[in-house]
Amino acid sequence: MTTSETTPAQDTGHINALRERMIERLRAVNALCSERVTAAVRAVPRHRFAPDFPLEKVYDATAVLKTKFDSDGRATSSVSATWVQTLMLERADIRPGMRVLEIGSGGYNAALIAEVVGPHGHVTSIDIDSEVVDRARIHLEQTGYADRVEVVVGDAEHGHPDRAPYDRVVVTVAATDLPRAWTDQLVSGGRLVLPLGLRGFQRVYAFTHHGGGLLVGETGDHAGFVPMQGLGAPAPTTVAATDTVVLTTDADPVPAPDRLPEVFAEAAREQYTGVRMGRNEYFGGLQLWLATTLPDFATLSGDAGDLGHATMGVHRTPAMWTGTSLAYLLLPEVSTDPVRWEFLARGHGPEAAELVDLMVGHVRRWDREHRSGPGPRFLTHPDLPDAPRVISTRHTRLLALWDQRGTGRLDWEADPGA
Ligand SMILES: C[S@@+](CC[C@H](N)C(=O)[O-])C[C@H]1O[C@@H](n2cnc3c(N)ncnc32)[C@H](O)[C@@H]1O
Predict the structure, then answer these.
(1) Whose CA is nearest to atom 11 of ligand 1?
(2) pLDDT tens digits for 8-54?
(3) Would you kindly state where each structural domain of the chain is located, as residue ranges?
């Protein structure tokens, strides 16, 4: 069944024009590159998977179409923004004939995958929410994809062994870990593409399975997917510094959590870094650099008024908490014409000077060596030994590999060197 068979004739031209405009935009920002994925975007009627939304919104490349909310009004399900869907499909490098597992359903993305894998491939989509599964099935049925996509109810923590192994696993819900099942059910040479939140910063990662549970992959763009539910739901450890400022850490145990409010209230020591940002400059690489290289890393979030300067981004700012001292990074505006912001490290407690120095050194090193680089690659395996730059999650361990700009050399050293 095609769009033209079910949409009044007067709308078809309008829909096609909106879709072509969206495709142009996606191509302009490199979220859509291949002929295969472009053809899929042309073929699948996105509006039929989001009938309650205005067409202009459905075909806006950046709009997230939120379809379900929890009791606090937070979205638990959506048809994701097209830019992130096509970007992830491009990163997944899906080919005709492949078997693909999609984690998190909605229908539209699975239909795109079905177009790419073609009649000899297979798509399984799993969602923890039976209402989402029912709705996805109805939309897939109405658009003619029901035979090519199987939608099942389940907690993706276990993958979906019945149809394994998969050539590709595409996760469309925010993960904070890599459950063993996802790698076990992936062929050697297969790819796992997912939005993964590490130490508070969510990015799209594209991993290749090198066999035996070893994954190696690149870090991509910032993403903001709805959180995982079920066994993989995030369970961050937080410590309050004030009524509105909270430290989030994966230190286990958290050193002297009771001391944090007292230390935070102490007089601050501040040092500007000399590293400035202009309007629309991206500092996501710095967040990951600090998250993977600073000892005692944490994030601080809360009221900008209480923090005294603008925080880095709306949600959280990189921090360090040792149990006696705290340091964190702020980004106050330092000039208005042109507008410029400068990273500022601020510390409290007896080791404030050392922590501030360390943080300033790290920011300067990022500026010199990694500011315009691609960000880290990650190597992951559950048996990686303890080492600097190794992040432990419940199920695995991830080693951040930072290529030094221009040298093509991997920077394994832990020493930040200012
Ligand atoms: C962003 S939506 C998926 C979007 C969809 N792929 C599309 O076509 O746009 C994320 C989905 O993940 C589901 N989800 C959350 N936790 C899950 C889990 N543990 N296992 C399977 N699905 C989960 C939610 O119910 C939600 O429907």
Answers:
(1) 104
(2) 544 899 999 999 999 999 999 999 999 999 999 999 999 999 999 99
(3) 3-232, 237-369
Specify whether the CB–CB gap between 237 and 230 falls below 8 A: no
Pocket mutation for ligand 1, best pick of 48, 105, 138 (most atoms within 8 Å of C-beta): 105
Cβ neighbours, 10 Å, residue 289: 26
Whole-number average pLDDT of the chain: 90
Is-catalytic flag, 80?
yes
* 316 in Cβ contact with 299 (< 8 Å): yes
CA distance between the termini of the chain: 62
As to burial, measured by CB atoms within 10 angstroms (0-12 exposed, 13-18 middle, 19+ buried), residue 269 is middle
Looking at domain 3-232, which CATH architecture does it have?
Answer: 3-Layer(aba) Sandwich (3.40)
Question: In Å, how far from its chain's centre is CA 36?
Answer: 24
Closest-CA residue to 222 (of 240, 200, 237, 241): 200
Q: How far apart are CA 196 and CA 108, in angstroms?
A: 21
CA of 326 to the centre of ligand 1 (A): 37
Q: Alpha carbon 169 to chain centroid distance?
A: 15
Q: Is the pLDDT of residue 355 over 60?
A: yes
Single-letter amino acid, residue 150: E
pLDDT tens for 205-244 read 999 999 999 999 988 888 889 999 999 999 999 999 998 8
